[in-house]
Amino acid sequence: MVALPAQANGEMRRPKASDQPSPLRAAQAISNLSGPSLPTSVANAVFQDIEARWSLDPTEMRVIQTKPKLWSDGCLGLAPPGEFCQEVLVMGWQVTVARRRQQWVYRSNNSGELVSWDQAGSRLDSLFTLQSQPIDTVQKPERFPKKVVFSAITHDGSLETQRETLLLKDGSILQRKDSQIPLTENQRIGEISPEAVKMFAALLKQQQFHQFDGLCYLGTDQPADASKTFFRSRKTTVCYTKPSSAQLPSALQTVIQAWTQLMP
Fold it and tell me: pTM for this structure?
């Protein structure tokens, strides 16, 4: 094993070809998985990082889940505090590796040249993901204009104070406080390219955003009328409370991160 410098939690690294585990070992570790085929180079990079961080034998590990992903930025959605990340969507993978009762979740680009340990994801995908409950039909927003691709609504539990941010098909980003006001009369706060709109729509599909329709995630000991954020696409509405955001399912967190990156 080639010794590597110690790294901070979640720090992104570029693996070296000289110290990667055997390609045969990586191929064996992913051979029994169904679904899209994980590149051996990505599996190698993940095993290498685990070996370097915890001095564990890669032969004791197995890949138990792989998911193609579209990450929200050049840091794979895991930017360290205060660090600038390139504002570009990155095609890649989410890889879950198991050893006995331990599990690690990793993010990578398509080639495995960039890998990053998702510390929160490793926790979320096992024991600490919040349980959801149905959205109260009284609180669920109804109107969704045809020109809108996605919107985020924040309001208190009584619905008396509300703010909505909307992404339109042409890339315009609007903000309004009253859903009855026509879109043309609302404040324009930014704009993204039509291509970026398409990439965001693709991310929603890739993360299976529709699976969260009608669900609401509340933090521990929070009342049903706590302040909430609603995320909406044409066929999906999901809500969560801000204190609970770190414990949301990883796919929903990815959508939140991508949406935040789009905001001016």
Answer: 0.51
Query: Which residues span the domain enclosing 42?
Result: 17-128
Residues in the chain: 264
For the chain, the distance separating the N- and C-terminal CA atoms, rounded to the nearest angstrom, is 46
Contact present, 167 and 197 (Cβ < 8 Å): yes
Instruction: Find out whether 141 and 153 touch, Cβ atoms under 8 Å.
Output: yes
CA-CA distance, 209 to 194, in Å (whole number)?
20
CB 168 within 8 Å of CB 183: yes
**What pLDDT is stored for residue 18 in this prediction?**
44
What is the model's pLDDT at position 108? 97
Lowest mean pLDDT across 103-107, 142-146, 215-219: 142-146
Q: What's the pLDDT score for residue 204?
A: 93
For residue 10, being part of any structural domain is answered with: no
Q: What is the CATH number of the domain that holds 156?
A: 3.30.1560
Q: Are residues 204 and 224 in the same domain?
A: yes
Residues 40 and 159 in one domain: no
Tokens of 191: 């704009």
Q: Are residues 173 and 92 in the same domain?
A: no
3-state secondary structure of 167: strand
CA atoms of 63 and 10, how far apart (whole Å) = 19
Alpha-carbon distance of 141 to 261, in angstroms, equals: 24
